[in-house]
Batch of 3 targets.
Target 1
Amino acid sequence: PQGSEKAKAFVHAFLKRSMPKMKDEAIQDMLTRKAVVLEHYPKKKTKQKRKKTKGFTAKQRRELRLFEIEPEQQRQGLKCLTCVVKYAIFLPLHELWKQYIRDLCHGLKPDAQPHMIQSKLLKADLHGAIVTVTKSKCPSYVGITGIILQEFKHVFKIITKEDKLKVVPKLNNVFSLELDGFISYIYGSKFLLRASERSAKKFKLKGTIDL
């Protein structure tokens, strides 16, 4: 048909313009194979190397004494801390903690199984919880009640209602925790872990507890 001849002529002319260096025989060969591939050579983009900012090494930090605090500054910091910390400031934190535990335990209902709640509390974050030292080898710790501000591997930092910051060791102490009528006991000797480590630890529900 006349239309197909016009199409061939158009393609031939198009290829001739697009690839002027190609001979007519090569163009005709491409047309007979009924596959036209236009040669295109894009320019290679040169990647710019990013310069990495180098920080101080551990040895350089020690030599520069970046993280060392003078003893006078430490004493001043402790004085400021005891002046600023107030029990009433952290009551909203305690309310948030109670709601967090209720959500974690799907509501503390009367028919809830105690051992299931106990297992969740053992792995829960205790920052904001109100605890009481019920037993201790050191009688001066017994009766201390307050909100947990910080939990470390070996100690709890507790703010009491008298606005005093107490550092209570976990070892040889038993803590009680009450929420919505449910009372749980924390045996500090079996609790010598950081808060981040407790979430992955498997606790035994049965066993002997010694102070």
Target 2
Amino acid sequence: VGNSCVLTCPSKPNITMVTWKISPKVGGSCTLGYRADQNKTDRTNCSDSMNWKFRPDRDPALEIWQVGIDHEGNYTCEVVATEGNFHTTYYLTVLVPPRLTMYCDDHGNPVCKAMVGKPAAQILWVLESNSTPKEEGHDNGTVTVLSTFTAYSTNVTNTTCIVSHPAGNQSMTIAC
């Protein structure tokens, strides 16, 4: 999320036409088209955040700026050339790194919270704990995970939580 993304399409000699068909999980579909005989591009229902990376007659790649959760979905490129028709399909999955916070609850137990990540983060503790993480799903597809450290021993001072996520791992330490 927030980065740019480039989806490539087969670049062939003697291209007649190129079409990107975009079907997001949420919202309406859109198309980007190029006709070589008229040297003309066309767009239907596509946001300004996506366009051709370069000139479609030279490279039919699609670029998406500031990728958001709403860009997630199917992207199909169709190239028509003298040697045939070529299709490439992508399913774009958007990763949202969680925001990590840590605090002490009313009983003096460390609490680790990985907020609004996609997919849900995994929370682990450096020292063994019998914690069971709780997940809260949000309408936009993100998930907040909360884990409270419960020590087997009472002489624990500093506690470290590790948040594992495909967009990157994080850790935080607290003394309660």
Target 3
Amino acid sequence: SSTMSLSEAEVQSARGAWEKIYVDAEDNGTTVLVRMFTEHPDTKSYFTHFKGMDSAEEMKESDQVRGHGKKVFSAINNMVQHLDNSEAFLGIVTPLGKKHATQLKIDPKNFRIICDIILQLMEEKFGGECKASFEKVTNEICTHLNNIYKEEGW
């Protein structure tokens, strides 16, 4: 049985939408992070090596920002591949959530911020339909992450 609220058709269209943006994982991941750091500067405080960077240009060129952008996109890609298998999906989301809650102590609202920026970028690049078909996936991811945070006492 699946804890996921996505139908098979929704899973397929979400995967199609994600593939478009994942083709350029490093560039698009970097764009998402740079936007987050620029529009929500408090999020930079979690990344000691990004703290001193003020210009978007400087961030875009940073190997650390690029590396983390790619990492974020790889993690989401992993989740997207397992949307039709809730056990496998949770096997990816759970350790990630625990690590961010306990070791990194990242405020869970930042997951929503990053997901919203991904949706925004999808809409800009590929249109509203692309964004719409991925929206449920981001809700799913954020819901599960928030549940893990609650279990960890947030």
